[in-house]
Amino acid sequence: MAARLTDFFAEARPPVPPRSFPELTECEREVLGLVAAGRKNAEIARELYLSPKTVRNHVFNVLTTLQLADRAQVVVRANEAGFGRAESR
Q1: CATH number attached to the domain at 25-89
Q2: Cα 60 to Cα 79: distance, rounded to the nearest angstrom
Q3: Which pTM does this prediction carry?
């Protein structure tokens, strides 16, 4: 009986979509989303209540981890991955 209930509820739940960029921290994904939205570091710092230096560090980490050269590539890569559409950052 328990196995049948487990199977029933497992089928009833929609599959959880994979998170984009699992190699990034939650904060780095948040920064990536804001960079992809065209925000400048100062705007990101104000919105996330971080220092500009911390935002610079997060942007650097995103670029390094994802092996990207600049912010334009961040935007392209985030859009290709569907980042921010049907998932929570």
Answers
A1: 1.10.10.10
A2: 19
A3: 0.73
The dihedral over CA atoms of 64, 69, 71, 73, expressed in degrees to the nearest 10, equals -110
Domain chopping of the chain, boundaries:
25-89
Q: For residues 28 and 89, what is the distance between their CA atoms, to the nearest angstrom?
A: 10
How does pLDDT run across 45-64, given as a tens digit for each residue?
999 999 999 999 999 999 99
The letter for the amino acid at 87 is E
3-class SS shares of the chain: helix, strand, coil, % to 5: 60, 0, 40
Q: Coil, strand or helix: which one is 84?
A: coil
